[in-house]
Specification:
Butyryl-Coa Dehydrogenase, subunit A, domain 1; Butyryl-CoA Dehydrogenase, subunit A, domain 3; 3 domains; four-stranded antiparallel sheet
Length: 380
């Protein structure tokens, strides 16, 4: 990784990897418990990780996309759930930072920037999945009051967030609003028994005539799907691409160590042709994922018009190869690879979820195919 970075970026990354490594022995326990301990959340807050990408003027770290991406890579080496805590918080908080009212940026954003309040984002609905255009949660005016009704599911860190950025329909136009966890009319239900991201405190939100004040609205009506969702998803896709790359680093490290140390049929595994093929492909795809992620980060940092395409490509590739190679890693590690509490098995479970989060593989293919084809035509 360091050969792709400037000296300052490499030092930043090395510091993050070292600091976050303290939690690696605990990550399997987080999955068993179904949530991150408050000590971990507090540590992220104290290290200012929860506000790293937010404006310095609001109390955030003001980190550029490269430094933020390296944070997700380092956190992904430890736990996809841990990385997701920072990601979903930033997804919601960046929308407030960019499109919140002056009052929200004065009264809400500083608590998100310093991590004293955690945010989560509420998009997904039971019948919608990736198709947000079919959103059924409604914000309607009745007797002079704004009332929110509907259901959101698979809300990452719904069980630990203090405030939710909720997307809804209002008079046929998409909108968004901020709703506190203890707001009357909001009910939270944990969603356990999930395949991956088991420590991400997933949950369901039900809104029953949940009254929203006008000051809770974020952006203008019609901004929800057209402006706010793309902003949040771009941060999320950039984060997940780097997160997957960090996870692949750990998968490759475990597979390589096992192949070098384990003997079969009188020879080290690394001398067997089938294992050599798996290790070669894994290491090459890891290097490619790093390049794609860094290209995306630098495009975001420079305001490159092609940044969105770069982010989509990085997310698509990194998550796809992580799923492929985490499965192969389980195969290489054999009996130790299938242990439920093992790091490789956890990566295998989480990898499948990352290929669904922030747009499934198929959704990204639908978005990327015409872009890539038109780019090829323009190149002559």
């Amino acid at each position: 990784m360091e050969h792709l970075l400037t000296a300052d970026e490499a030092a930043h990354h090395a510091s993050l990897v070292k600091d976050l490594a303290r939690w690696r022995p605990d990550a399997a326990g987080w999955d068993r418990d179904g949530r991150l301990p408050e000590t971990v959340v507090r540590w992220c807050r104290e290290q200012r990780l929860t506000g790293a990408a937010l404006p310095a003027a609001s109390g955030g770290g003001g980190w550029d996309p490269v430094r933020t991406g390296l944070l997700y890579e380092a956190a992904g080496r430890v736990s996809a759930s841990l990385a997701s805590l920072v990601n979903v918080h930033h997804m919601a908080a960046e929308v407030v930072a960019r499109w919140g009212t002056a009052e929200q940026q004065r009264d809400v954003l500083p608590s998100l920037a310093d991590g004293s309040r955690l945010a989560a984002i509420a998009m997904t609905e039971p019948g919608g999945g990736s198709d947000l255009s079919g959103m059924e949660t409604v914000l309607e005016e009745r007797d002079g009051r704004l009332l929110l009704n509907g259901r959101k599911v698979f809300i990452t860190f719904g069980g630990q967030a203090d405030v939710f950025l909720v997307f809804a329909q209002r008079a046929g136009r998409s909108t968004a609003c901020l709703v506190d966890r203890d707001h009357p009319g909001l009910t939270f239900t944990p969603m356990g028994d999930v395949l991956g991201l088991r420590a991400a405190a997933l949950g369901q939100l039900d809104f029953h005539d949940c009254e929203i004040g006008p000051s809770a609205l974020v952006g203008r009506d019609g901004f929800g799907l057209a402006v706010l969702v793309p902003l949040a998803l771009e941060h999320g896709r950039h984060a997940v691409a780097w997160m997957a790359t960090g996870m692949l680093h750990e998968v490759f490290r475990a597979s390589s160590g096992h192949a070098l140390d384990r003997h079969a049929f009188g020879r080290p595994l690394i001398e067997h042709g089938q294992i050599q093929s798996l290790v070669t492909r894994m290491g090459t795809d890891l290097e490619a994922a790093r390049h794609l992620c860094l290209t995306a980060s630098r495009a975001l940092a420079s305001g490159d018009p092609a940044a969105t395409d770069r982010v989509l490509t990085a997310k698509y590739f990194a998550c796809r190869v992580l799923e492929e190679h985490s499965a192969q890693a389980v195969q290489i590690l054999a009996s130790s690879g299938v242990l439920e509490s093992g790091d490789t098995a956890r990566a295998y479970r989480d990898a499948k979820v990352l290929n669904i989060l922030e747009g499934t593989t198929q959704i990204l293919e639908r978005m990327l195919a015409p872009r890539l084809a038109n780019s090829a035509r323009r190149s002559g």
